[in-house]
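**Entry details**
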Amino acid sequence: MTSREMKNEVYSTIAGIAKAFSNPNRLEILDLLSNGEKSVEEVAAQTAISFANASQHLQVLKKARLVRLRKDGNKVIYSLANRKVAEAWTAIKNLAETVEPTIGLTLQQYRRARQTDQSICLTELDSARYQLLDVRPAGEYHYAHLPGALSIPVNELELRLAELPKEKTIVAYCRGTYCTMADAAVQLLRSRGFNAVRLEESPADASNPA
C-alpha cells in the first residue's frame, strides 16, 4: 500500500462516517439518543417521521457505527454507540451555531413569540432560590439527570403543580437548546402563577449528571 492509497482509504472511511451526520432527521435522532435509549417506535413518534423512515435512518447510523441496538421482545432498542458520538454531535452543533448566526436568530424568534426567551445557565444556579425541574419522560430522567432536579414529565405537569415550591423560581429543562418541552413547561408554570425560566443545558451537556 502506498502512502496515497493509505490516505485515500482513511479519508474515505472518515467521510463515510461524516456522511451519516449529514441529514437533519439523523441529527435529531442522535440528539434524542443522547438522552437515553429509544425504540424505533419512540424515535419515530418523537421526531415526527414514519416508522419506516426512522428505521432506515437508524440503520444508516448503525452502519456508520454511531448507534447500537438490542432487542427487547419484539422491539428493537437503539442507543448511542459510545460517549464519543454524543461529543461529536455537540461539537457539530457548537460549530454550526458559531458559523451560522441564523440558528440563534431562529431560536430567539421562536422563544420570543412564546415569551420563553429568558433562560439561565447551570453556573448561575443557587439551590436556595431555584428548583430544577426535569420535564423529559421519566425514563430519560432515570438514565441521567441534573443533581437536585425533580422529575415531572411535561404531559403530567398541570396535574402535579402542587409538588413544586411556590417560593422558588422553577428552572425547567429538557433535552437541550433545541428541545421545546421546557418552553411548554415555562409557559404553563407562568400561567399558573409560578416564576419560571428555562435552563440552557441538559444532562447530556453537563459534565457530571447524577
Summary: The helical segments are 3-20, 24-33, 40-47, 51-63, 83-99, 102-113, 138-143, 181-191.
